[in-house]
Structure formats: C-alpha cells, structure tokens
Amino acid sequence: MFPSKSLPASGDAQEDDVLTLLALPNYKALLLAQPYSTRKSIAHAVVNSVLRNETVMSTPEDVDGVLDLCSILVLDQREGTAHHAQHAAYAQGGNPYAAQHLHNQDPRYNGHHQGGTPLYGGGMGRAMNSRHHMAQYDLEEMAEEQGWLARMVHLFRSDDLETQFSLLQTARKHFIAGGERIRYTLPPLSVSAMKLARRYKLREETEEDWESKMLTLYKFVHQIISTLYNKVESSDACLRLFLLAAQSADETEFEELSYEFYVQAFTIYEESISESRAQLQAIGLVISTLQTARVFSTDNYDTLITKATLHGAKLLKKPHQAAAVLMASHLWWQVEVAGRPSTEEKPLLRDGKRVLECLQKALRIANSCVDERSTVEIFCSALDQYLYYVSVADL
C-alpha cells in the first residue's frame, strides 16, 4: 500500500523537501504542462514525502502550495488530453479513468503487459463485467488516495489559533470541489476544527473577541458537515459528525449551537436512515451523546431526550424498540462526567419515576412479542438494567 514505510525515500528526501519545492517560481506551470501519469506520480511522491517525514505545514501558503501539487488527487481532472480522452471513453462505452491511462500508455489498460490482454478493461466493446471490475478498481484506488490526503490534514498545524483556522479554510477551498472525494477529505477537516475549538476554550480568558471566533469556527464546522450531507451519500458519517460537533459545543458551553447540532442529527435520522438496525445504532449514538450533555437548560434537555426516546419507541422491530427504551432510561439518570463535575446551580438530573417508566415500557414490549426467544432476551436485558439502578438508587 502506498505510501509505505517499506518504500525507499525518494532521493534521500529531507523533511523540508516538499516545502522547498514550493519555493521554485515556475514549478507549478511546468507541472501543469506534464501528462496525466507524470502529474499523478508527482502527487503520489509529494504525499509520500509529507506523510513519511511528517512535514508540518504551518502557513496557508504551504497548505495551498502542497494541495496544488496534489491537485490531481484532490480534483477531477478536466483539462487537456485527459479531458478529451474521458469524453471519448464515455462516447465509446468505456471507462474515463481507463482512457486517461490509455493516453499515457499504462500497460494495465492497453495490453502491453505479458499476454496482451488489458488487466482492467480498456474501452469500447468490453463486456459489462469488465466495466464493473474497472469501476471497482477506481473506487478502491480513490479511497486509498483520499485516505492519504485525510492523514495529511492533521499535519496542517500552527501554534497561532487564527493561523490554524486559516489553514483549515485554505484546505476546504481545495477539498470542497472534489466531488465524491469529499466523503474522505471533509470529515478530518471537521474533526481538526473541533480540536481547534478545544484549544480556543483553553484561552477563553485571554483570547481577544473569543466568543465571536468560536461562533465563526462552529459555523465553519456546520458548513462542512452540511456540504458533505448534501453532496454525497454519507448520512451515517454526517450524523456522527453532527453529534461530535454537538458534544464539542457542549464542552465549550455554547448551548444554542449544541442544540442546533443535535437538531441536525435528528433531521438526518428522520430523512435518510430507514433500515431498522441502522436506526437502532443511530439512536444509540444520539442517546449516548445526550447522556453526557451538561450545558442545556431543563427545557432544552427535556425536549431532546424526549425526542430520542420517542424515536426509539417507534422502531419497526419489537426487540429494537425495547433496546432503545432501555438505553433511553439512562437519559433521566445522569452520572458524573470526567472533568465536568456537577454544581449546586446545575445538579445532575436523576428522575427515578421516568427511569421506571422506561423499564416498564420495555417489559410491556417484551410481553407483546410473539417470538418467545425475543421475549426472554428483552426480559434478561431489562433485568440487567433493574439491577444496575437498584445498585445506584432506590427506585
């Protein structure tokens, strides 16, 4: 797998080789004049060097320059002969990716390897299964390449918080036009932004205009996740990212922002998650995240946990309903969260009556099951929960 530690470093590369390359005034113009295969090989070498040497890019110019060198991995290529080869391949019923390599005499596609038969399809008149194999190859290679870029995002680092935010904005400018590639490149960008939010939180007392900067940062996170959700099929990943953002906003004590992120997570659940087991997993994630929330007022928290419980109780399968309701019982019995102790002004919510209602609801679901095995499994799960609550409180 490329890049690999087993690969030799190109030309005894030093850590600053890539950044030195950016200082050459005409290198970018020269690169753009090269054929597709050359540009792709150079992009691979750049990523390999950055990851191998853990080269930190600490200015927006560095990030912009490196991603320009890797543009063939970041964006669909639509210029020059590669562009014409793509259109020709579509017209002939072939694969545009194969056409790009045909133009550059790649033996995988043009039959120049031993035996004279293309390894990955090769153009007009190929059978449907050959095109399917080629498409699968494309997806696997793209996923691998985008994984390298995703790792590289975490090397966009600066000690200055405003500069760090500029690095992320610069990266977004490049990634946002990547089409299907954004399913791999935008998640690490949003996670890096949430890491930056924690750094800002540590400077709450000393950072000038702190609240405004935090609001701008969370707006950036919201835009990234929304773009990902709207442009590619990634509902599960976006739900998780919105929950992570909600947790981040909760930790930094932005109640309205945290509430909005939870609303977006519920919206994705309602619009895009329909399979019963996937719904159970999604509701489980929502419940586990809400259980650690501490920033909300009583009304906002009650609205969110009631919504989560109702969604769980409406799952299609009875065992899934019972599992969700049993998980939801913990929303009314909060426990201490490490690093965020309860206070007299904001004590832990511990409503034994609502907990008992959830447990009894699970028992009613068990009694309504036709399958005896499901009934027994639900009773056993409910018993576990009863024993837990008996150990911590008298219900």
Any chance you could write out the topology, listing elements then pairs?
Elements: H1 17-22, H2 27-32, H3 36-53, H4 60-69, H5 71-74, H6 80-91, H7 96-103, H8 107-110, H9 128-153, H10 161-175, H11 182-202, H12 210-231, H13 235-251, H14 255-272, H15 276-290, H16 298-313, H17 318-328, H18 352-368, H19 372-392
Helix pairs in contact: 3-9, 4-10, 6-7, 9-11, 10-11, 11-12, 11-13, 12-13, 13-14, 13-15, 14-15, 15-16, 15-17, 16-17, 17-18, 17-19, 18-19
Pfam families: Vps35 (PF03635)
Organism: Ceraceosorus bombacis
Subcellular location: Membrane
Strand content: under 5%
Portion of residues within helices: 55-70%
The mean pLDDT is: 84
The count of DSSP E runs of length 2 or more, i.e. the number of strands, is: 0
What is the N-to-C succession of helices and strands? Answer: HHHHHHHHHHHHHHHHHHH
Rg, nearest Å? 26 Å
Q: Sheet bearing the most strands, described?
A: none
Structural class: mainly alpha
Distance N to C terminus:
56 Å
Number of helices: 19
Unreliable residue stretches: 1-15, 79-134
Identify the overall geometry. elongated
